[in-house]
Amino acid sequence: MDGVSYTIALSLVALIALVATRAHLALSSARSRSTSAAGPGLDLYEAACLAGGPRRVINTALVSLAAQGGVRVSGRGGVPACWSCSPRWR
Question: What InterPro entries does the entry give (predicted)?
Fold first, then answer.
């Protein structure tokens, strides 16, 4: 590799590093502006409603109840109340 090719290659690497650094700084700046302007975040059920409507909220509630021990999901898809178990939220 002669001196001219080496200089061009080194300049290209420096240019790519500069562009990557500026892009990273711009992205982090935009993220900090968007999170501070958004205010408080959504709770789990609000996010579920925005993601999939009422059905997603129901699925989220059932998963939450199953995780806390309030219901059990049967193999056939039934969701009976679990009266014999002690939920973690009591």
Answer: Ser/Gly_Cys_C_dom
